[in-house]
Design a protein that fits this description.
Layout: H1 3-21, H2 30-33, E1 44-49, E2 58-68, H3 70-90, E3 94-98, E4 102-112, E5 115-125, E6 131-140, H4 145-153
Antiparallel strand pairs: 1-2, 2-6, 3-4, 4-5, 5-6
């Protein structure tokens, strides 16, 4: 392989990595996706970008799902609430559902680079004091949380 080809491949990979990390670079929830709250080995991570999301008017989708302790679930909640504080100041839409065994929070963040951004957190109590956590970050042209829910339910 020639040196020029190697450099092209390395630059391409670097640009891809930078563009993916830049999607939500300033968010506290990145600590969850980076495995700083729960080890990556215990998570199911999903990252989708491109045409596969066009039906939902999204351009980027990232999720983490894992079973964790009560303290880890509380740490995830605190990170999400820290990010939510930025949406509260902007007066953006949100929805909360609290039940005895399930908590759900969905809210919009301020737009960035022309894309609307959303975070969804679902926590479901499991047996033996464990919690199933599903954390989702999304970007796209969807207008608000209510519109996002309608598109997902289709």
């Amino acid at each position: 392989m020639t040196m020029k080809l190697r450099m092209t491949i390395i630059i391409g990979l670097l640009m891809t990595a930078l563009s993916l990390s830049a999607q939500s670079a300033s968010l506290k929830i990145n600590q969850v996706f980076d495995g700083l709250v729960t080890p990556i080995e215990r998570m199911v991570l999903t990252r989708v970008k491109g045409k596969a999301l066009s039906k939902y008017r999204l351009t980027y989708y990232r999720s983490a799902q894992f079973i964790c302790s009560t303290s880890e679930a509380a740490e995830v909640t605190n990170l999400v609430l820290a990010d939510k504080a930025t949406s509260d100041r902007a007066g953006l839409s949100q929805r909360q559902t609290w039940r005895s065994s399930k908590e759900q929070l969905v809210f919009a963040l301020p737009s960035q680079r022309g894309h609307n951004r959303f975070i969804s957190l679902v926590k479901e109590k499991q047996k033996h004091g464990k919690t199933l956590v599903t954390l989702i970050y999304m970007e796209g042209s969807v207008g608000d949380v209510h519109e996002l829910n309608k598109l997902i339910k289709q």
